[in-house]
User: Fold these one by one.
Assistant:
Number 1:
Amino acid sequence: MSLDFQQKLAFLAQQPEALSQFGRGIEREALRIKSDGKLSSDKHPDAFGSALCHESITTDFAESLMEFITPVAKDVPQLFNYLNDIHHYSAKNLAADEMLWPISMPCYVEKEDNIELAQYGSSNVGLMKTAYRQGLKNRYGCMMQVIAGVHYNFSLPSAFWPVWSQMHGADLTPQEAQSAGYFALIRNYMRFGWIIPYLFGASPAICSSFIQGKETPLQFKKLAKGTIYLPYATSLRLSDLGYTNSSQSSLNICYNSLENYLASVSEALHKKSPEFKALGIKKNGKYIQLNDNVLQIENELYASIRPKRVQKKGETPSQALHARGVEYVEIRSLDVNPFSKVGITEEQVNFLDLFLTWCAITPSDEINEAQSTHLRTNFSQIVTEGRQPDLRLAINGKEQSVSAWGAEIMAQLMDLASVFDKQQNVSHYEQAIAHIAEYFRQPELTNSARVLDKLLAANVDNGILALSLAKEYKIALCEQGYQLWSDQYFEQQRLASLEKQQHIEQQDTLSFDHYLQQYFTNAETY
């Protein structure tokens, strides 16, 4: 049998184990800045141990771009206890004149060469991580790579998938149902995931230094000394100007099944790029990129959502998915929330739990290449003009205004929230939807509108606002205290990470050239 939405809700209401014990994890990125609002040029602080091996504190593209990683949490308060403790320790152990930049778009950077690539030691795996980043620098420039975001990792409980199979009339093994269900979720995220930057996008304005004199078709307005903005933008971070990859526009990654996805990713990994070939692989004996394909490795595939599986040692992401199926999804379209000292709020997470579950249970037909292109256009419109009152989107053959789409989705999310709250004997899911639903009736309540309102009201630059918040948040983070962990715990983590890195370096026997050759040869096999 295949049920309609209300029938599915009634069915889920009778299956409490299917909607409990979600897996949740957060990865929050933040630039280290100096007290004058400029990028820090200092090395990764010693207090944070090995960026290669630390479980909670590492770096992303640059030495100055920190990344905080929580363990998997089964409830939202625990998730935020993890996140707050990591931020508390980090804030206390930054240099006295350093802070965390509280917005997605970078601070003032005079020259791209001032951005030092992240360093991970002398092991082959560490050298590969830095060489990969060197490739990103040479391909796209550093400015795009120091944009910060928040990634939300989400898994439905194992008990959900047999219920999902029943609701969809599918005769599948548990692993098959889980992978099929997650890809159904992903396809609906492609259709409706524009709702995330609309609601939570917080980068309608950028420092003009970000463009570095490059031409853009976007019709920016100017503010204060050096800020440029779009009046109805939600997330310039997610626009063609920001964290995207135009060279990947020809790739047709297919999300209709796990098999389709793996095949299309494999094809993309082997697709040659004339532009990148012209760069060369080495210069003066050093790698300037890992290869001249459109994608050096799978991590270079830019997507607002990814199917994921925890990798075993030596596995690529595709090998892990092929061997054991999809385990969770990673949501990558969240801007850093400048109104939270840890970059995201519990209300946002409650909303994401509901929205992602809705994506999993809502009908989700396959998406062809033409539809995929159209959905990307919808997304692009939202990030550059999402609060434009007359903006309309066509989805599944139906066209209506953004506010009408929002009202329709929110009504179903409220029904789902009611099921969540009754099963868990709480009220925060319905409260979250009741509050956030107003954003579609009053776009001025969205994060992007709030940011722009503060800038315009005071006629100040983006950086002035961000620096003020950075100072406020450092004080608050240092003062708040631990919820779960301690200084002793983080000192143990620091020492363990350094010891692990040393062990990896001592175990290397191959030259770096041979290591890369072996890596890419092994990556060919599932």
Note: Residues 254 and 260 are 6 Å apart (CA to CA).
Number 2:
Amino acid sequence: MSDSIKHECGIALIRLRKPISYYAEKYGTPMYGINKLFLLMQKQHNRGQDGAGVASIKINAGPGMEYISRFRSVKTRAIDSIFGKIGKEYQHLKQNNPEEAQDINWIWNNMPFLGDVYLGHLRYGTHGVNSVDNCHPMVRENNWRSRSLAVAGNFNMTNVDEQFQKLVELGQHPKHKTDTTTVLEKIGHFLDEENQALFGYYKHDHTNVEITSLIEENLDLQRVLKRACKDFDGGYAMAGLTGYGASFVVRDPNGIRPAYYYVDDEVVVIASEKPAIKTAFDIDYSQIKEITPGHALIVDKAGNPSMKEVVEPREKLSCSFERIYFSRGNDPEIYEERKNMGKLLCPQILEAIDYNLKDTVFSYIPNTAESSWLGMMKGIEQYLRKYRKQAILNQNLTEEELDEILQFKPRAEKLVIKDAKLRTFITDNDHRDDLVTHVYDTTYEVVKKGVDTVVVLDDSIVRGTTLEKSIIKMLDKLEPKKIIIVSCAPQIRYPDCYGIDMSRMKEFVAFRALLGLLSDRGLSNKIDDVYDKCMAAVGTPAFQQTNFVQELYDMFTHYELADKVAEIVKAPEVNAEVEVIYQTIEDLHLACPNHKGDWYFTGNYPTPGGTGVVNRAFMNFMENKVGRAY
């Protein structure tokens, strides 16, 4: 994606199902679980570079022993920083106690982070200050292990205000009005209630010490999560560790946020992406399963996993952006889907170049678009194969003409190269823009000046700023006849509120194109009409039932908006003709049949809160407010 946006977080959970001595004997180190957690997080580092955090639980730790540990970091290489610290503690422990360190159980008792259950989190901050305090896991500690809780997740809630008020009505005094705080405190509240109910049930026939064990053996986490999650509105994959060792990952009822798991007799593993599990544990993809939407994978204190319904599942609308861009492309399903995206764009591309392959150069930006580019080139080759066949069947060709047809190949070049980040110390905006132009560089002397059309494939076009300020200007210096920018994603028209940092309407180039078309055709009054409808609906059910902004987009075709985007991203000094091609919604669904979450393209949100967010975001635009709409 040439326009940088912040997006999904990542989670990793490991439950060791054997004593620590088992892993030390079989794998040569008591650090087996920690090493695997490091791998899981490294293989998902694409999901969060603003910070990282880890937590662990020692099951059956004795009184006076630290049973819950947590490390967090916002350093540039946060994962390395955290695990470097853990590794140093282990080395110091062995060096300072060489005799005792021969006993694995002694190491387990004396090294704080070494445990039985591990939770890791990678953070992409969608808002707020990037401080350690904002890094997951968040911890709610108590002297009763069964009341202690650590939570980390990939989620955004659209109804934070409502959830905050419910906590107040429960008698709590939350310190912050954030979705992370409300999630932690809501689950924590019902965990407390479950503890209290069990204590009341057992108190007449057992001592307090006996009751502690009975609670840990009988606590119903499914019931806790059902009560806590019943009115959450958002996309979420939330992972939690209890102080006594039970753990869970719960997924939203539409399956918006991803979560996968693997189980064998040694471990239970959960992560946001399949390839991380595949690589860390060297297993077949067929062994990795998906957590069912609306369900929680709960692992009890004994290490037994079970899938339990928490919220009634709804239509599965997994985030399609995971497939287009966010998730790593070495997942075989995603790899094929991305190639299909590129292939399905070929009819539009061929029409745009007037089927003139001889004078067309195909390229891509950024590197994550390479898989889609391969699919696009495969589609071009398929067209060319049909063309060759038809030419041979229908014409009397000379040997020279036949050789030319058979030997011709589409022209594929690496035209766009991203240099290392340029730090701009000049405060003058005009000069800063000039430097931004050079963030990307190009391969020279491969384009026929004034003759060739350059086709550049991108993952998606969000703001259009990089195209306007850098890429198109740079490509224009090659002096092509025409520049065609192709987006694997459809037009991003609406804000996202389930995990991606795309919440302000005016930042979307498609929305700016909409405003431009309304102005060009003397229809700007329609904007005020929609604003009035939003205002009239505030406080009524209609505000969360009807996306009023859709009626503005419905006034224009997909292609009219694309043409207007091309006008916007073509700077006045660019000489080449510029065209922008977008993936259609229909073809996106063909490419990704099991991931049809498309609200940022269509405005069809899977939850009422999402519809409310788009209306609020539009109102914020009209009122010149810069804050998020949720």
Note: The first strand starts at residue 10 and ends at 16.
